[in-house]
Amino acid sequence: MAPTELLRLASLSLLLALVVQPHEAYGSTRGSFLSNDGSAAVSGICATSVTIHGYKCQEHEVKTKDGYILSMQRIPERRFEGNGNAGTKKQPILIQHGVLVDGMTWLLNSPLQNLPMILADNGFDVWIANTRGTRFCRKHVSLDSAQPEFWNWSWDELVSFDLPAVFDFVFNQTQQKIHYIGHSLGTLIGLASFSEGHQADTLKSAAFLSPIAYLSHMNTALGMVAAKAFVGEITTWFGVAEFNPKGQKASAFLKRLCNYPGVDCYDLLTAITGKNCCLNFSTVDLFIKNEPQSTATKNMVHLAQK
């Protein structure tokens, strides 16, 4: 796999924020967690996007061995489940999102179209992971997210610390081996972690959605320009610890991409995915209100290295 191919997905996610950010005011308030000063509000993913649909949902915190405190959500049973199934052991399943998004990305549609809720309604005990640096994972036992040291990590640390921590937590809570679903970067860290034997005793099966090994098949002008441009400007990011897609530096970089010959940012979703039967304006508005999320600049540099 060429690492620059993975970066295409990251750059395209960033472009979504740039091009449609002016429409934020028209989106639903569901999943909008920021207060007036830009800090995270008290309500989390459960309260804003799960329990409102009639599902039980639990918020958990998981501490990694290197001190990061991760947010995790659990949907333990199907919607409106009766007491007749109380106490029934359900198979745990862990869902891991990709780069520059968080667990909210699984919950942008109706319950009949959201993977966690579909799984819960089919009898699974669903756990939603969130990686360090995303909006509800900006805590550490000794570091503040405003410190550069907080962002001194790449996907190597997600492999060595984040994924083992959430696996151990789910296993300790359920005492059962775990099904794993990874999307995009979630496939990379899953495969790398499993190959090192971190989850040998707790993994039951794995499913990979949009595995990054296949991103070399992406041949849109937008994708190729985004990847090449980021790689060409990596040195300009040194000294910027947090890669914030909605920050001034990232926005200026992304605006330049839209001026490249052959790149059409007007119809961005079609430019990225081709014609898509299943996207609608409400879903896109919710995505833009909640994503993309920050990651470490070191992580982006790692993904861009040849």
Given as residue ranges, the uncertain stretches (5+ residues, pLDDT < 50) are 1-41
Strand segment tally: 9
User: So what's the CATH class?
Assistant: Alpha Beta
- How much is the radius of gyration in Å? 19 Å
Domain Partial AB-hydrolase lipase: 50-109
GO biological process, one term: lipid catabolic process
Keywords: Lipid degradation, Lipid metabolism, Signal
Pfam families: Abhydro_lipase, Abhydrolase_1
Record the SSE blueprint.
Blueprint: H1 3-20, H2 45-49, E1 58-63, E2 68-75, E3 91-96, H3 115-121, E4 124-129, E5 139-140, H4 155-174, E6 178-183, H5 185-195, E7 203-209, H6 221-232, E8 242-243, H7 248-257, H8 268-273, H9 281-290, E9 295-296, H10 297-304
Parallel strand pairs: 3-4, 3-6, 6-7
Antiparallel strand pairs: 1-2, 2-4, 2-5, 8-9
Helix pairs in contact: 1-6, 1-7, 1-10, 4-5
Defining traits:
306 residues, disordered N terminus, seven-stranded mixed beta sheet, signal, Rossmann fold, 15% strand, AB_hydrolase_lipase, Partial AB-hydrolase lipase domain-containing protein, 9 strands, alpha/beta
